[in-house]
């Protein structure tokens, strides 16, 4: 399913998740309601990274996670003012302290970037510039099937684009949900408009 979206044949019904269904991996500086949306303010120096190239371990990300079984997909939609180096938001997939994935947008090298970090003891990082996404509503979709997690994203109502395909043990217990980090400043607030779960994508392509 190249454009993403819920697979109609799956027995798992798509539904909105209540914010109360998640747990924080690290509590943010502040959380507030805005109608059905959730406003999350990051703590300065919050981040997720393990060792590679930089030599440090950061595990202070603000992720509101809930279980994601094999055969399911989760989406988060959000807006934010990403203007300082490494401001970021998206979705976080957590198996353990040493195994996780974060995917979404990040302000780096003077532009908004779309990318992912996949961590199996050591982190990697891949990005591509999306300056045209600044100020838009962004949706990140994480689909789990077999031994893989497929990450897609889009701005507004445009078609989903593939961000990453990563290995995930089908026996692993994984949690997924909205993510905010602000490695270099205080005051980053991201507005999460929706959090949904439903069936995994019917196909990789």
Automatic annotation (TrEMBL):
List the InterPro entries: ConA-like_dom_sf, DUF1349
Q: Which domain of life is it from?
A: Bacteria
PANTHER family the UniProt entry points to: REGULATION OF ENOLASE PROTEIN 1 (PTHR35332)
- Tell me the protein's name: DUF1349 domain-containing protein
Source organism of the structure: Leifsonia virtsii
